[in-house]
Amino acid sequence: MTVATAVATADNAHAGDSHGEHTHYTTTGLEHRKIAIWAFIGSECMLFASLISTYLVYKGRSKIGPMPHEFSCKVSNVVAQTAEGVAALGCAAGDVMKPILDIPVTSQSTFVLLMSSLAMVLALEGVENHGKPGYDRWYKGSKFWLGMTALMGATFLGYQSYEFTSFVHEGLTITTNLFGSSFFTLTGFHGAHVTVGVLWLLTLLAIDMKRGLKGRNDVLVVDICALYWHFVDVVWIAIFTLIYLIQ
Amino acid sequence: MSDQNTQAAHAHAADHKEHPTWKQYKWVAFWLTLITAVEVWVYYTPFKDSSLFAPTLLVMSAVKFTIVVAYYMHIKYDHWIFKRLFLIGLTMAGGTLMALLFLFGKLKIGG
Amino acid sequence: MATTAAPAPMTAGAYAHGEATGIWSWLTTVDHKRIGTLYLWTALTFFLVGGIEALIMRIQLMGPNGQVVSAEVFNQLFTMHGTTMVFLAIMPLSAAFFNYLIPLQIGARDVAFPRLNAFSYWVYLFGGIFMTVPIFFSAAPNGGWFGYAPLTTMQFSGGLNIDFWVIGLQILGISSLAAAFNFITTIINMRAPGMTLMRMPIFTWMSFVVQFLLILAFPAITIALVFLLFDRFFGTQFYEIAAGADPLLWQHLFWVFGHPEVYILILPAFGLVSEILPTFSRKPLFGYNVVVYSGIMIGFLGFGVWAHHMFAVGMGATADTIFSLATMLIGIPTGVKIFNWIATMWGGSLRFTVAMKFAIALVALFTIGGISGVMHSSPPTDLQQTDTYFIVAHFHYVLVGGSIMGIFGGIYHYFPKMTGRYLSEKLGNWHFWFFAIGMNLTFFPMHYSGMLGMPRRIYTYDAGQGWDQFNWWSTVGTILMFVGAIFFIANFFRSRKNGAIAPNDAWGAGTLEWSIPSPPPDYNFAQIPVVTSRYPLWDLKHPEMTADLVHSAPDEMTITDSHAVPVHEETEYKTAKELGIPMPFPTIKPLFAALFMVVMFSGLIFIHVGIFPLAMAITIGGALLFIGTLYGWLTSPLE
Prior knowledge:
Helix content of chain C: 55-70%
Largest sheet of chain B: none
CATH superfamily of chain C: Cytochrome c oxidase-like, subunit I domain
Number of helices of chain B: 4
Oligomer: heterotrimer
Largest interface: A-C, 47 and 58 residues
Strand content of chain C: under 5%
Shape of chain C: globular
Order of helices and strands of chain C: HHHHHHHHHHHHHHEHHEHHHH
Number of domains of chain C: 1
Number of strands of chain B: 0
Structural class of chain B: mainly alpha
Strand content of chain B: under 5%
Distance between the termini of chain B: 71 Å
Distance between the termini of chain C: 35 Å
Radius of gyration of chain B: 20 Å
């Protein structure tokens, strides 16, 4: 049974939707890239789970300080909940190191990152509603909110840099002990993900400033970035609780 | 004409049923801020030393996690396949994490 | 099946469908069929390399106190043999089939992300070369294919060998991950109308499960490797015992990946066998649903058994028991498949083509491997067996008797589709018998030498321990396997030019890939078919064979949306242009992106060579070029 190829020629012309963009038939009616990003996010769950597991497994096993929540002795592996406790265990007064994680500061950076997700959601709204009545004001537009998200992301990275450098000054580097190695690798990987996200946002902002972001494809492109960004945010929620708050 | 409309409608149909609005976004942001504030506040109270501290914090974080994924990532409003893809990854990740904690003696099962 | 307009198959010269030829067309291809072909050639080459590594080891071990190679070289041989076979041969051979077959089986024109697909291949090629080249400088990886830390830390492995291994595996991981996201999207989103998940060919189903295993397992080894890389290059403490590190961290992270990995290695072969057996039994697969669900169960349970590789490390009774139980459990879905395959053949009209022989060999030999596997699932028993040749016997039965047999079967089955010519059945039979007999002769004696205590990875042994005879037979078997391989190589090259011409439906099979020409035109299907059952082609040509299956058609709107037509055989040859089918543009960008990424990674090696500025220059230069190429790629349209 052979095919009537004359029919085939006409049928294989693009199916255009009402915006004139061409769409391919898909089994689910969903976009390929959206399926791919969610699969990617599922995979990243395992990546961060491996990093977080290692941190938690190695917690309390460092032989020398600094320690995350406890006071520790600079040279011996003496650890206690208070400065007096460490001294009572035989550590010289000048050698006592204080707990290194700074909750107040990290709470601020956590808040900034959480709010950046709100900004991201508003940026996507801006693209979806481009040109619609009520969305022509600058504070409703995608450019403003993409910029805000990137700015807040960059602020978070600023906090991270501050935290990393102050830790180094206090004697904790990536090579110091198990805590240093696992902490910096975990938060470093997270920070690298944030950095990629910020660069992605700035690229989208540049495109928005050049030709504007509108229409189905642009909504998808910004949506993909948003999903990535929110995921990076929820990973931080997990990190903040498991590493900073829980002892 | 109607054929084209149904085609377009069909292509869009599976995209999302409804759409979260500014109202939901506002509430999510509010709860995220409030819960984080409570988490940090609780850290500075004597409750920190109780055995319920960790579970409480985990529950609060789980709530934050869930509302971001459900509303900001609009998994609640989208095709079920995204929820599946995400949950497969999350479940495996969670299970592996728990197993490793147990294997390295950080969690006790039974005795 | 008169094909009056039969084209000259690809081996006869320029493609009849107006496709490009020449090396540039191969370097810039984004066509899944060409990429599959590239994977096949490269993987078969690495398979040969891995085989030679094994042969040298077997010659060394043929008799006691062998003098053929030193202990150090032997370490490199077994490391590279394992690494090459797992990562550079079997996985890419499976990838060759994923690439070639999946779009054809689901009625699609390509994969979801054609350029990413090409990128995956080039990363594999460059990564494989990166990891293999050190052999020529006697600096090949030498820490075992599983690279246990702390043995592989700088303290105990100070040379460049392990650096190549760590970096090489990271690179290869990226190739596999990218491909997995591609195939997941393809299988979810590009099936022809009417092809529900439960109507997909089993090969596609098993491959679908494998992609999920890949995306969930590779992150674990990525992190394990990151820790080792950081320890080796930047002085972190992840595997430093003196700093309080746990020697089991590497093992757990590695095997969280490593166990799903072995299912990644076998499930595609299971899928191929599930295509071959029904075809040559002239019967639909028995218990399709069960085969699918057991595949899913194997995938899921496969994540819960990893510590059975660690029964001898002292995890404690609770852990041992849980993992032992889970391991025994996983034998059930696997065993179920064996029964389904046997039931498929039972009462069927059997044709013993070479492909069928390889498929039946898998059923028999994998069962033997499975039996020894179940023995290992008991920790007390495993305590005797672990790290002996008994384990080597087990995994070679499942990997050679299982994966390789299945893959060879797949090659014989699909070679006509890929090239338009049949492989010679005569040479194929020589190949099969030498290889099958050789394989058993090589690995069966290892059960005995293992039971008698012969440890793994030793480069020599003293006489009089009861091992000599078994080792001798194993080496003879290896030589027989090599003879079989030579027959295969001869068959492969000869048949490309002189094989009998194959029609669309080379074997009388039932799935969509056999409804289009051999080899298929670049657009695959001139018209996307509407699928109404699991065996659309049998529905068309032999309805009596599928009378018992459920048939249904998708709704009218779906058919209209997709411009699909009833299942049909395509024998007319028009170009994509004539048919108005948009094809993706060929592009060199994926190749360059892969190249620059590998260059970027390889810069790290120079840190240990001692030239830090050069290392920085190469790494940063590579990174910039990589990002630049990526930018060009992402901003240029696909078609």
